[in-house]
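Troubleshooting entry. Yesterday's outputs looked truncated, so today I'm pasting the complete records for two proteins to confirm everything comes through intact. If either block looks cut off, that's the bug. Protein one:
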Amino acid sequence: MSANSPRPPATALDSTGSTDSVDSTDPTVAAELLALGSATVYEAAREECFLPYTLRPAWVGARVAGPALPVRTAPADNLPLHLAVAAARPGQVLVVAGQGEPCGYWGEVLTVAAQQRGIAGLVIDGGVRDTAGLAALDFPTFSSSIALRTTVKNDPGTVGEPIVLGGVTVHDGDLVVADEDGVVVLPAGRVDAVLTAARQRQQAERRYLERIRQGELTLDIYGFR
């Protein structure tokens, strides 16, 4: 699948058996999932859709949700990131398999370039730098390290082709939800079902919290006795 060919919308069955198109790239869907939080979304998904725990916010308060554009680089080579910025669609989140290299794949210059293209954020299994600048620009960035080491620009890698991070395959158009708790990636075809389950989970947890505040024990609420 090319970088400019989004996945088709997901479909969901209603109670009558008909199908309604669900656009997994809808920004309002991404915003609601982000508000629900990565932990709730992960629990609602009932599958191992979380990316490695080493992917942490590069600055305090970074949060982002949106359709993924997967990118793969050679070790310490950031040419694919320049290519991805040129290829990305507005609202996308770059999800980069950077081989975990602790080097400065990304900094303030690429951030400004990305924002000019409408890119929503970056998740990279590799290093970033200029973190104060990223925070000032309010560009959500998640990385496995903060690092200064330079990169080369020799290998184009891949842009838009599936990548694997921590056992999770990320396709073009899958939905990324990243916050202070972690990063999850939902297959485009499951976004609607996971959103419904996450809403239900949030409502249930609110009821549990109210019961706890009234004196009930979690042992009884969850039936653990």
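Protein two, checking that the full record survives here as well:
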Amino acid sequence: MKKHNQEFRDLIYVHLNTGSQYVMSYGIEFYEFAISLPEPLNHLLLLKHRFDDGDFNMHTSLEYVPKERVGQLIKDDVYSYGDFCWLDFDELDALDELSGQEIAELLYLGHLKQHLKRPFYSHLGNQFVYLAHDDGWFNKIYYRNTNDFYYMLGNATALKLSHLKMEKTLLGMRKKRTYPPVTKELLFSLSSYIKEGVLFSLKDAVHSRSRIEIPIWVLGDYANMDDMYDHYQQVRRQRSDAKLIYDKKQKEWQVLAN
């Protein structure tokens, strides 16, 4: 299995399965996901992990992270865990209300990264189910509300660009430039592409004095990210299907179809 750790910061692949309400992705790591959501994460029930500071729930025999400790998890090296799977929940007492069938469904989710039934539980109030292997390389995330996905993607794209594009000051030092989020409405205009499986390549972005052009290729539906990456290598010299453009003067994003 290949690892493209160095690529995580400059490639984003997303494929939205609207019927099952999940997104397959490559390139967005847990900390980027967490800080790019419209609201902070609540308590997290851990299905697969290596976090050292979780609490134990007797009813489920699973560990969880209370809301006040989620920040520690965000800072941890979750990529090194291998498998990293969790879902959020509203109230600590709700874990004791899970039935044996529901606990079995959660164990199945963590083990096979597939659902037996729609993985949203009313008494947990979970908004997400996060299933990752080598976090950032293979991520499968269920969204109760797909608007949260588009919001997160717009923030994460701007965040990645600000980390990549450093500017020189008059003293020769380098500073990080910040960019406004790509609006969810603008990304929604690309929803037909995203439902097919699309790659945004900050790696191949063209920078000029007036704007930044990020090429977008429609690659298709991939669960094996080695195959997705190989496909990207084949098409990256070809004309892109669209471009995500940042106008530096207007400080606005736009989409241009090719």
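Both blocks look complete. Sanity check on protein two: The chain has a mean pLDDT of 93.
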